[in-house]
Amino acid sequence: MTTQPATETRQERKERTRRALLDAALDQLAEESFGSLSLRRLTKQVGIVPTAFYRHFSSLDEMGLALVDESFVSLRAMIRDVRRDQPPPDELIERSVDVLSRQLDANMAHFRFIGRERYGGVAPIREAIAHELGLIERELATDLARMPGLEAWGAADLQLLAGLFVNLMVVAAYEMVGPGAEDPAVRREIEETLRHQARMIVVGVAGWQPLER
Amino acid sequence: MTTQPATETRQERKERTRRALLDAALDQLAEESFGSLSLRRLTKQVGIVPTAFYRHFSSLDEMGLALVDESFVSLRAMIRDVRRDQPPPDELIERSVDVLSRQLDANMAHFRFIGRERYGGVAPIREAIAHELGLIERELATDLARMPGLEAWGAADLQLLAGLFVNLMVVAAYEMVGPGAEDPAVRREIEETLRHQARMIVVGVAGWQPLER
DNA sequence: CCTTTCAGTGAACATCCGTACACTGAAACC
DNA sequence: GGTTTCAGTGTACGGATGTTCACTGAAAGG
Predict the structure, then answer these.
(1) Is the CB of B185 inside 8 Å of chain A's CB atoms?
(2) CA-CA distance, B134 to B136, in Å (whole number)?
(3) What percent of chain A has a predicted confidence (pLDDT) above 90?
(4) CB–CB of B200/B208 below 8 Å?
(5) CB-strand contact A121/C, under 7 Å
(6) Are A117 and A126 in contact (CB under 8 A)?
(7) Which of A81, A173, A191, B134 has its CA 20 to 30 A from that of A102?
(8) B156 and A213 in contact by Cβ < 8 A?
(9) Are A190 and A172 in contact, with CB atoms under 8 Å apart?
(10) Do the chains contact at A167 and B163, CB–CB below 8 Å?
(11) Does residue B32 contact residue B74 with C-beta atoms inside 8 Å?
(12) Half-sphere exposure of A105 toward its Cβ, with a 13 Å CA cutoff?
């Protein structure tokens, strides 16, 4: 295993099987939860012997935390994309959902992982995800503070709103990428629901203009 | 095992160990996900031999579906409680959260189970939960249709709103009852956040009156 | 060029897993 | 009161699990 064309430094090879382990995990996590992952099946899929796993991670949990890390790198990259070309406030939702939709395909497994394990079985992973989502919530809150009409809001108010949006996003992302959303039509429907629900939060029930049909 | 004071009909005894199996599952599900449950640990906790499990369920999955069923009996009972004494619209959120909070203690394990397995690992259970939540969402939509100010809303609009509320409730319920919410202060905080966020959806960002601090 | 490092090997382990099978003994039934 | 039903027993199995340990062979380094 792991012999390649010609030149490849030792740490390149190591990094490659490490990557393969992470990918195998993300792959298997599409069909089961982290708590039921098996080290042996993982290494079998990668094509190495079970014990070689320990050359890369000291335990399955440690590998899980690595997955959390890189998943949130994806998520933050997405947020940065939205923030980069400062969209006008009235287009913020549209732009955000567009970016989400685009990034979703590139990082399906990551978003699926977050959605699945957010409330899933294994404590340290659940906690790591909760922590990262908390950070993102607070970042979003400070972003929102600069929006017209929200300058006077207190930290607590902004936090509430940020929580609503983050929740909505995580749930919608998972539903768009999780099992049952293979059909593009279904996915587009979820995407539209997300747009509308986000708008509904902004204008409120009182200010909602019924959808034309 | 399973010998009792005096008279106890055969099906009573059977029902009792069935109940014990379900309870043992709910108990263990506080610390792991359904996908990693083990028939042997389950039966050990109940005090019966592994093979006796099959006298009650044909598989772990079937038992999981039974858990979904009884969990939604709890949830529907809760909703009926809110609906029973028709609360005035402006108190609906307060009343709902109060009922939720009260029912939560009585059915912790059920709500924890739903929150955990909603996006969790095992397909048939995930689908059963999604189906039941869909029903509840539609019920709530028809309830909302009778509210003053919403009589003119179309089915799609009502569905959007119902989705927001159901989502908010499931997430908040899990956070109130899941790991990390043992501290009553933490729980009360989550409860208050839920109240505020629900109100924010109703009045919208535009109509939000900043919290006094 | 010779030595060190170390990713991956392969056998062995104790333990857990689900399930098949023949069984027992007491409640249920006629 | 004799027969049937059936929840729970006990053994036994084949296979999967995580982890140990001493190992190999090629790349890295002096």
Answers:
(1) no
(2) 5
(3) 88
(4) yes
(5) no
(6) yes
(7) B134
(8) yes
(9) yes
(10) no
(11) no
(12) 9
- Cβ contacts of B191 within 8 Å, gap of 6 or more: B97, B101, B172, B176
Which pLDDT does position B4 carry in this prediction? 39
C16: residue with closest CA to C1': B40
Which DSSP letter does residue B2 get? -
Q: Which residue has the tokens 């202060």?
A: B185
Q: What tokens does B207 get?
A: 């109509």
Residue of B118, B120, B164 lying closest to A197 (CB–CB)? B164
pLDDT value at residue A5 = 46
Assess whether B41 (CB) lies less than 7 A from strand C: yes
Alpha helices of A146-210 — where are they, by DSSP H? 155-177, 184-203
A148 touches chain B (CB under 8 A): no
pLDDT by position in tens, chain B (length 213):
433 345 689 999 999 999 999 999 999 999 999 999 999 999 999 999 999 999 999 999 999 999 999 999 999 999 999 999 899 999 999 999 999 999 999 999 999 999 999 999 899 999 999 999 999 999 999 999 999 999 999 999 999 999 999 999 999 999 999 888 999 999 999 999 999 999 999 999 888 988 876
* pTM of the predicted model over 0.90: yes
Say how far B28 CA is from D11 C1', in Å. Answer: 28
Single out the residue of A108, A113, A45, A47 nearest to residue A78, CA to CA: A108
What pLDDT is attached to residue B210? 87
Question: CB under 8 Å to A54, separation ≥6 — which residues?
Answer: none
The alpha carbon of B145 is separated from its chain's Cα centroid by a whole number of angstroms, namely 24
The b/e string for A172-182 (b: 16+ C-beta within 10 A; e otherwise) is bbbbbbbbebe
Cβ-contact A28, A36 below 8 angstroms:
no
Are A35 and A121 contacting, i.e. CB atoms less than 8 angstroms apart? yes
